[in-house]
From TrEMBL:
A molecular-function term among this protein's GO annotations: precorrin-6A synthase (deacetylating) activity
Pfam families assigned to the protein according to its UniProt record, in alphabetical order: TP_methylase (PF00590)
Keyword Ligase: no
Catalytic activity of the protein: precorrin-5 + S-adenosyl-L-methionine + H2O = precorrin-6A + acetate + S-adenosyl-L-homocysteine + 2 H(+)
Record-annotated membrane-spanning stretches: none
Segments forming domain Tetrapyrrole methylase: 6-225
Organism of origin: Sphingomonas taxi
Key words, A-Z: Cobalamin biosynthesis, Methyltransferase, S-adenosyl-L-methionine, Transferase
Stated name of the protein: Precorrin-6A synthase [deacetylating]
EC number, UniProt record: 2.1.1.152
Length: 255
């Protein structure tokens, strides 16, 4: 039997780890750390630093190579197909790493950016392991999400009074536009600055990158005045660091 802990670690800041996350890390027999492409080595280093700060000598830490997602087209259908294939490959990588390093069973942990429930597919990948025949139980340890870190950094509420918030993706915002009857959008996974496709009139943006990290970058203001500056700053930051994780909040104000 394998017991899998999916541990939300916030945005990589050690202060974002909850006590529950620290307990789960120390209780694990094995922690698996994914290694992505070379220009994203900082992401592996951040996870290693968290392990060095929290763990005792009883937990083994093993690095495995994370498969890359195939290129996909601009439309949702091809994108979803590429993601499903990618998740199949990740599940196979997890299974191989577990079989090699924990063959008699035990407790394995994965450190998940933000929280495993918000635009993260760790739970879907774990379900593939079960469908593949692995005897598996799963526990989620919640973490601070990028949306919490964003609103805290800007000292703003997520919602307006008695009003809803829609959490969506940059891809969907670009293809479907601003949904009707929603004044506040929280946008995740936007590598192409989909806010540039919107009519900026009456829209305010709050943007943040590397939230909670030493290189944290913030910008806020009317979209018409701030959007182009965010695009330029985002490109510059990505060129310096080789990767970027960012998110933003959009809000329409009544005329």
């Amino acid at each position: 039997m394998i017991h899998l802990d999916l541990i939300g670690i916030g945005t990589g800041n050690p202060d974002h780890l909850t006590r529950a996350a620290e307990r789960a890390m120390r209780a694990a027999d094995l922690i698996l750390l994914p290694r992505k492409r070379a220009d994203a080595a900082d992401l592996l280093d951040l996870r290693r630093a968290l392990c060095a700060e929290v763990l005792t000598d009883t937990t083994r830490v093993v690095v495995f190579d994370l498969p890359e997602r195939a290129a996909d087209g601009p439309y949702l259908g091809p994108y979803l197909g590429a993601v499903r294939d990618w998740h199949d490959a990740i599940a196979a990588a997890w299974a191989g790493a577990i079989a090699t390093n924990l063959p008699a069973g035990g407790r394995v942990a994965l450190l998940v950016w933000g929280d495993p429930s918000l635009y993260d597919s760790s739970l879907r990948i774990a379900a593939r392991l079960r469908r593949g025949g692995m005897a598996l139980t799963v526990t989620v340890v919640p973490g601070i999400t990028s949306l919490q870190a964003l609103t805290a950094a800007h000292a703003i509420p997520l919602n307006t009074l008695a009003a809803p918030v829609l959490v969506t993706t940059g891809r969907r915002l670009r293809t479907a536009g601003w949904p009707a009857d929603i004044d506040t959008l929280a946008v995740m996974l936007d590598g192409d600055c989909a806010f540039t496709t919107l009519d900026p009139a009456g829209v305010t943006i709050w943007w943040g990158a590397y939230l909670g990290m030493p290189q944290q970058a913030l910008a806020a203001g009317p979209l018409a005045d701030t959007g182009a500056a965010i695009v330029a700053r985002r490109a510059a930051l990505r060129a310096v660091h080789g990767w970027i994780m960012d998110t933003y909040l959009l809000r329409r104000t009544a005329a």
